């Protein structure tokens, strides 16, 4: 393209019509004037700029269906669009691909491409990845907003059981929905802590009692507290299962599987204690019960349900499988090499502790990951040198992949905070738009509501109910276009 100051007259055919290939059009986008020629624009005839080449013969209706304004004296088309995005989009006519400049919102750039009727396939792969990330963020915000609106909305067609089911689900799954739900979440958190503490304290010999057969068992008081905690966990799980909208998805969820693993050992051990003695020897029953009681440690993972930090850590580890794999590979190679070297160098010592290479693996593991326990240690000079090198290599191997893992954690944690803030901001805008709509539609009704708000929380409830009827830009597929100017028409 070139600036419009370099004027040029188009050639004409024998019948006086302008050749579309050599026609010059002037485009003014947000105050930036640029000149294009038909031979360049006609490479992509379905785009808006290519349609401008042939729109003059169709009259003002055809012109104003494509642009915001038109000056017939200068033959200049006006567009109230983003000039920075436009400069990137017109690269498709010259280079066949588009790169999005830094600082431009990907979603806005996508909307600009749709306005100029340029297909997204011309966007370079690096920019598509950035656009996909932003689209996922908007979808996540829309999902969160929709969940809040579903909670606030009231569907009169629902049955009483459906309404009760939804209330129980909100009560147990969404602590932010009400003050009683927050209290239940705190109680659940305390029961998890109490159950974990009781499990640990019950193993102290001084607090255990001896039964009639001389076997040590947990104190009856601790056993009663354990039973109360299991009762709470069972009631909580059953209520959540009954009230869940999708019971199959609920049952297969990871956190719900953890809940089952935390509850099941108690009932299985109780069944074995009362019925297992008739089917097998008493010693086998006791061993099975002890093995099942160890599974109670799974309940500590229930804390992840109430801790966003643990959820963020889990996600960061899931996104860091590649880095964790590299860490394990580095350690595995180092363990194999240094254990073999340590075994070879220590064979000359008569009192060597390195009996075989597989036995040396334990020494290599504790040396590369810690500072060693001293149960196995080298006694020769070369063996000590090998141990020092293995220790330094272990520090380096562990430190190298840590930075990407920390970055994944920080990135996801900040992203979740941004999404929460964006969802709240979207709801505030919806509430503001709803209030303005009511004020414009019925001022008397707004005055009545404001008077009643002084007596109680009626106004806030009215606003919350109206959320479900408010237009949400992120949740709607409706396209809104700018109103074109027709001052020259």
Automatic annotation (TrEMBL):
Record-linked CDD domains: BTB_POZ_Kv5_KCNF1
A Pfam family reported for this protein in Swiss-Prot or TrEMBL: BTB_2
Domain Potassium channel tetramerisation-type BTB stretches? 25-126
Report the InterPro entries cross-referenced here: Ion_trans_dom, K_chnl_volt-dep_Kv, K_chnl_volt-dep_Kv5/Kv9, KCNF1-like_BTB_POZ, SKP1/BTB/POZ_sf, T1-type_BTB, VG_K_chnl, Volt_channel_dom_sf
Coiled coil listed as a keyword: yes
Domain Ion transport stretches: 182-416
Name the coiled-coil region(s): 415-452
- Please give the Gene Ontology molecular function terms for this protein: voltage-gated potassium channel activity
Subcellular location(s) of the protein? Cell membrane
CC terms in the record's Gene Ontology section = voltage-gated potassium channel complex
Transmembrane stretches in the record are 183-204, 248-270, 324-341, 385-406
Q: What is its main location?
A: membrane
Q: Which GO terms describe its biological process?
A: action potential; protein homooligomerization
Membrane topology, record value: Multi-pass membrane protein
Q: Which UniProt keywords apply?
A: Cell membrane, Coiled coil, Ion channel, Ion transport, Membrane, Potassium, Potassium channel, Potassium transport, Transmembrane, Transmembrane helix, Transport, Voltage-gated channel
- Describe its partners and assembly state: Heterotetramer with KCNB1 or KCNB2.
The record's PANTHER family line, in alphabetical order, gives: POTASSIUM VOLTAGE-GATED CHANNEL SUBFAMILY F MEMBER 1 (PTHR11537:SF171), VOLTAGE-GATED POTASSIUM CHANNEL (PTHR11537)
The family this protein is said to belong to: Belongs to the potassium channel family. F (TC 1.A.1.2) subfamily. Kv5.1/KCNF1 sub-subfamily.
Q: What does this protein's UniProt record list under function?
A: Regulatory alpha-subunit of the voltage-gated potassium (Kv) channel which, when coassembled with KCNB1 or KCNB2, can modulate their expression and their gating kinetics by acting on deactivation upon repolarization and inactivation during maintained depolarization. Accelerates inactivation but has relatively little effect on deactivation. Coexpression with KCNB1 or KCNB2 markedly slows inactivation.
Recorded protein name is Voltage-gated potassium channel regulatory subunit KCNF1
